Amino acid sequence: MTDAWPTEIKVHKDHSALTIAFEDGASFTLTAEYLRVESPSAEVQGHSPSDRQLVAGKREVRIREVIPVGNYAVRLVFDDGHSTGIYTWDTFHQLGTENEERWTRYQQELASRNLSRDAAGTVRRH
């Protein structure tokens, strides 16, 4: 727990990322894809580490809506219909701090299972 408190939360115009700044001076830009595949929802995280689901095919996912949950979190609604993750301020801070490590691990997991960041039937843009 960091007791992180946000000073600004902004969804980018194209809805492909969210920038969050904190009172401690930390500021993170997190892609919609990263937030979606690391969703704190039970659907993704499961009820134990062994239940965690690897979510593939979300390269083009976008943030549709940010809904406040009390004064401690927001619920993100994605354009693929996923909307059950409650992102606390500490969760955002942790995702920002661990972005590089988590993203690398995610890509390695996809490769080890022969999965893609691209949705089935889509063409990868370069």
Give short descriptive properties of this protein.
126 residues, alpha+beta, NE0471 N-terminal domain-like, 26% strand, globular, disordered C terminus, metal ion binding
Helix content: 25-40%
The string of secondary-structure elements, in order, is EEEHHEEEHH
Shape: globular
* Whole-angstrom Rg: 14 Å
> What strand order characterises the main sheet?
1-2-3
Number of H/I helices? 4
How many separate domains make up the residues?
1
Q: Describe the biggest sheet?
A: 3 strands, antiparallel
Characterise this structure.
There is one protein chain. With 126 residues, the protein is an alpha+beta fold. It has one domain: NE0471 N-terminal domain-like (2-Layer Sandwich). It contains four helices and six strands. It has helices at residues 32-37, 42-45, 89-97, 99-112; strands at residues 6-11, 17-22, 27-31, 63-69, 73-78, 86-88. The strands form two sheets. Strands 1-2-3 form a three-stranded antiparallel beta sheet. It has a three-stranded antiparallel beta sheet with strand order 4-5-6. A hairpin with a 4-residue loop joins strand 2 and strand 3 (27-31). It is globular, with a radius of gyration of 14 Å. GO terms for molecular function: metal ion binding. Residues 9-92 form the Gamma-butyrobetaine hydroxylase-like N-terminal domain. InterPro entries: GBBH-like_N, GBBH-like_N_sf.
